[in-house]
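Field guide to reading this record: the first block holds the primary sequence, the second block holds the structure written as discrete tokens, and the final block holds curator observations. Each block starts with its own label. This record concerns SPOR domain-containing protein, catalogued under organism candidate division WOR_3 bacterium SM1_77.

BLOCK 1 — SEQUENCE
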Amino acid sequence: MSIACLFTLFVTTYHPLVVDSLIFTIDIEKMEAKEQTVSGTIIDYCIDDFLYVLTGRALYKLDCTFLTIEDHIPLPQRFNYLAVNNAEIILITTNEIVIIDKHNFAFKRGIGIEQGDYRPMTILDRAIPAERANFIYLIVDSGTKSILKIFDLKSGELRRKLTVDKIVSIIFNEETHRFITLDINNRLTTYDMLLKKKKSVGLQFEGVWFDRFQHGYMVYSPHGVFFVNQSGKVIDFQAITFEEKSINDKFILLTKKGIVFLDSLTLRPKGFFHVIQRIKKLLTIQAPHAQYVIMLDTHYRLQIINIASMEIQSITKKKMVAKEAALIAPARTDSLWYFQLGAFANYENAVEMYNNVKNNIPVFIDSADLYRVKFGGFHDKMSAIEIIGNLDGWFLFHEKVEQASTIQFSVDAEKYILEDGIIRKE
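BLOCK 2 — STRUCTURE
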């Protein structure tokens, strides 16, 4: 999961909760949860104006309240992470950054990058200042070092590269527009938006991960939870040893004996709950339901713990049908949808792909810049998804390409016709 995604995830009424391949929205007052599934294992996700979900071979946009699937596209390859800014979705793999239009999921461009297991330094890039909105900040580990990189999403240029001691945890302060990192040498380091070091303080203990707390930081250690000020001085300490990081939330820690609840103001333990089932995730709830904690066990049963009374109550789950939301027919424009199977600098390579595919569907070569093998056009993207089947490629939305021929063809016993450059079902 992307850095900071689970640090900032709080559950309120109708707020999506994503675990493995399941998506829930929880109504605290009714003690009910809607459950939605998507095709394939969920690799990454981000909650913004919609819930954006990345699976092994698809990208989804879901409504955060009703979990209806508002849009989706198949992907030609596996991506490891996603990030979101105001206008775009950025998909990241080991050697490429792909930019998708956030509004209609059309492919915009790709950027080749040096091989590495890159992950975004922040997944919700709309928090980044406007003058840096076209940049993406990536981190990749190499042995005992981490390499930080800034890429320009417009030009594809590598704007900055910085090698530092391996980073184990990182957060982005939206108020100060600063990155704060915790490295393997137990240093907290602050960087500005140009990745210039502004401050570094050493800790006298081992840190696993950290988060902002009051005017300092909560640092989680194998020895317990430390509260340190911005100079690294220990202000408070709770000797609580907890299970793996992915299970816990900021003030809720799963120990070998049970769940410990920390007071968000004093950092003192304010409750303990003994559990016998194996826990998969613990999540806090924002006001006005802050006295509750969501608990998900390894059998995907949802329960709510009342911290004040230490009572537990099961949540009723209602499985949703994974169907598309009712789509409003797009206004007719001079642009159409095209499915691009490949783009080549060499014409012969484009012809080879063209010849391999043309017996099944009427593809063409668009030579506006590169030699692009395309299939289309379509008035709507969903019609194209029905036809392409197992073909790999990207959906593009651009001005109509004139095609003089009229061609009838069949896909899975359905008959289609390409006429006046537009494909429709007969």
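BLOCK 3 — OBSERVATIONS
The chain has two domains: 15-317, 335-425.
The domain at 15-317 is CATH 2.130.10.10 (Methylamine Dehydrogenase; Chain H).
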